[in-house]
Specification:
binds nicotinamide-adenine-dinucleotide, alpha/beta, 14 strands, 39% helix, seven-stranded parallel sheet, Rossmann fold, 11 helices
Length: 318
Amino acid sequence: MNIVILGGGGVVGQKLAQNLCARGHFKGKSITRITLADIVMPPATAGCDTMICDITNPASVAAAIPAGTDVIYLLAAIVSAHAEAEFEAGMQINLQGTMAVLERARALGTKPTLVFSSSIAVFGGEAPNPITDHVVLNPQTSYGTQKAIGEMLVQDYARKGFIDGRAFRLPTISMRPGKPNRAASSFMSSILREPLNGQEAICPVGPEFPHFYLSPRMCAENLVRGAEVAEEKLGQNRAMIMPGRIWTIQQLIDAMTAVAGPGPAKLIRWESQPEIERIVMGWRWDIRAGKSLELGLEADESFQDNIRYYLEDDLPRA
Ligand SMILES: NC(=O)c1ccc[n+]([C@@H]2O[C@H](COP(=O)([O-])OP(=O)(O)OC[C@H]3O[C@@H](n4cnc5c(N)ncnc54)[C@H](O)[C@@H]3O)[C@@H](O)[C@H]2O)c1
């Protein structure tokens, strides 16, 4: 199996690459090649090839997805607050870039599996709670709009038989390793990650703020399981919510304290940030995965797991 991960230098792409390398097989066949392609050269990753690719450039996309590619993970994107602040860049990368990848997949003529990382940001507005797979998409940001369009394109390219497509609406991935990013949700990792590294962090919302979360490790596992599901089991709706769990900020902090003791929580400063608040207050949190659970994808058991995964996998490199 020849697998290409676009956005392979990002947090989810790196976790996915590690997962795939460790298992060595995919859909019952050996993995022969994993290529990590990203606009910034991905870090050298054992067992993977790395290359630069700009998904907005069709020639660059064609070079990253050669003939013989079996599976394409489309994770490359700019994230929520970035796409909100830079409207044109969001449309160019998240929408035109997605189109360029889909067109390349179609041009292969071999119906590759294509996995698109959508987001719970496709939901919002006046839809009733709880949010399920069947709730109308009503994004309240440009990023959510770009993801919603991407999902629909994946659905249509699959309906036409150009790809074996599937789209998963990722919960907020926490805790992310590395540095804060331009996602409006960035604080949902940094209020834990920075204190665990002995640094201060700012929390722009109150302790009762609820949200829908998944660990990077389980996200990568779900992306593999979701790609391995037989096409005939997907049914007519190929876009679905990836499992996650709902926690308040206080529950995240309590989980950190349970695992790492009381010290880190003292490094959190509570400070309002209206621009971030404006975006995240529009997000839905009462979210229930349905089809993906039936297909064998999973949520973390507890947020303490997320903290432990970070300490095991990422703390030395953070
Ligand atoms: N992390 C989350 O909480 C979350 C939640 C919902 C959806 N998602 C989606 O999951 C995917 C992966 O998220 P992540 O957390 O790893 O994000 P990330 O920012 O860590 O990774 C995205 C990668 O895409 C790359 N990229 C940006 N523009 C590109 C371009 N023009 N061509 C090629 N590569 C480009 C970036 O360099 C980056 O390495 C994204 O599509 C994101 O929208 C993430």
